[in-house]
Amino acid sequence: MNAPTEFDPTQAHVVSEWKHERPLNACRIDPLGRFVFGGSEDVVVSRFQFADGAKTNLTGGHSTWVRSLAFTKDGTHAVSGACDGKITWWETTAESPTPVRSIDAHKGWVRSMDASADGTLIASGGNDNIVRVWNAADGSLVHELTGHQGHIYSVAFHPLGEFLLTGDLMGVVKQWELATGKEVRTFDAGPLHSYNGGQGVDYGGVRALSISPDGKRLAAGGLHEATNPFAGVNKAIVLVFDWETQEVKQKHTADSVERGIVWRIRWLADGSFVGAISGTEGALVFWKQEEANFYHKLKLPSNARDMDLHPDGLQVATAHHDGHVRITRLTAKST
Amino acid sequence: MSISYACNTVEHGMARRSFLGTMAAGVGSLTGGLGAFLQPAIGEELMREQKRVVIWDMHGGISQLETWDPKPGTDTGGPFLSIPTSVPGIHVCELMPKTAQQMHHLCLIRGVDTNEDDHGLGRYKVTTGRKMTGAANDPQIGAVAAKALTPENYALPGHIMITPGGGGGRSNDSAYLGPKYSSVQLGNGKPPQNSLLPDTITVEHDAARQEYRRRQNERFLSRRRTATSEAYGYSYEQALQMMQQRDVFDVSKEPAKDQERYGTHDLGRHALLARRLLEHGTPVVKLSHSNYDTHHENFNFHIEQLGELDRAFSCFVEDLADRGMLETTLIIVLSEFGRTPKVNSRYGRDHWSHAWSVVMAGCRMPRGFAYGATNDNGTDVVDGRVDHANLFHTYLQGAGVDSTATFNIEGREVPLADPSSHPIEAILT
Question: Is CATH 3.30.450 what the domain over B13-190+283-427 is classified as, yes or no?
Fold first, then answer.
């Protein structure tokens, strides 16, 4: 992997803040880098122009909170998933986008979505413990993948195109073969889940799932050491698996972010990766594969609930509880 | 009903006024010793007459917005939608689909303002109907109801608490009403502790030693009869009955299809056990669901907890209705408070006592009714504001007990409920 010359996460700094009226749950940058889309604690999908932050609210697609987003690989359409169980297609660049199509995709929340590398498929995971794979062009159902025993918290297509990875509340990651829809194998991310008998709840889950661009590493993020789930007393963690052997190569932590939860992971051009964390603070945390502890942390003004990497590899968008999308440059400040 | 003892104390009697309520006929008809309750004909008659109370205690503070008073589409509403119920015009949160179909049996109290956001102090208010003061130690609703409703010679404990964890023994929830009305705990729904005859003691040996105890007891009582000595004898006889009727506490005796319907999780088992206990005449049963104190990820945790509650509670209500037991059983669903309308930065809701909900059903409660209202985003009560004292009166009146009556405790008249308050008259049928 070749990083741009100015790439330097240790110099990361926020360059833009764009505000939505309600707390944000999710964000994605379109594959051509023109827009950031946000999902929020209302029925709106917000669209921000990357150049200046100009905002358009997209309405009519959902009846409650928008929790997940994805783009078709050509960037022509955004797809939003919400707590009403629907996924809705939007024309990315329309002046005032209206729903292209809306599908009753899941019974319960749509927590996570992703687009396949070849642009033909959209995957969604929901509270019905089912993963569904959709034709990106017409919204028809391609696969219905069953077998998870808990809510689906994360879905991610393998970058080399053959597989889909899905993670659930119980700390189980399943690998599915896209051609057949068959389950191939399971990765044990058990440390990301715990059951608290006193409070009577399962907690944690595979909240972030990402495969390295070379396909050799699988990162699963979330939380561990949860001593009091109802108060969110836990620590952030990322497990990195060797793709071939399924061995956990490293347990990456960020203990200095109190009550941390890793919500998304993106691999960077130098082979390291960044996690968006919420806790008593919001943060972008940068890890190298060989080191358990992070090598840099950028504190953010509010809890970060989602994150995406710009196609230039130098900019990151984060979605925050205070309603802001923040753009962080992974470079030194320009003089 | 007051008993005069050799020491001239008047112990645990109820003042005459308390019998002006609808309990008079049922309680007044009781005669005989513990054995009387064991006669099937008499037992069945009592079962028809006897009022019962069952309390569903949602520990930690259940969210009214995710249950009984949803506000979808508002800044406080959270991610869940509302759904219609079996009563046109009444909607509940989508997390309660099965309970929604039983709404025609329920009475929602949506304007509860108990003005206490601390767990301990809030729990005290809600369970005793009074504000905690330094010197006070007031009995909880279960104990008050048990004293008012338990037939004098009822063979088994009149107040049972099914706890979510282990444990056992007696609770300390009856205050000055005395240990007779404290709840007997069934840890995780298991039969009472030490209720099996030890292997080393044969039935014949046990019968002989009980007979010896009774003779000695009678001899003692013939010379000096006191409330305390009588209570000792009562405790022994009650313990024997518990051992002989141990199956009453064994939920595995219920049909397998019912165990499946209620759910195999703890709350499902406990709810089915509660039904079993009520069917066997237990006057007061309390069960708990732990826990709802969801400062963090309120919505995820309510999905988990309410999945259990909705299944178990809906089956429970449906069964009591089908069996005609709602005529004589008051169901109460309470918590120490509700949860904040505002969603915090960690998807949590905090403590909120100023506008939350309690649910009742059965006895004198109207069916399919919602009393009181909160504003559009649930931050305040706009109609039918009631507090803990109003609710406490209403629980008792709902079960046919005159809440303005007094207990005679060692010669002192003690009001059953806060005499400065009153029940929610508008809902009592």
Answer: no
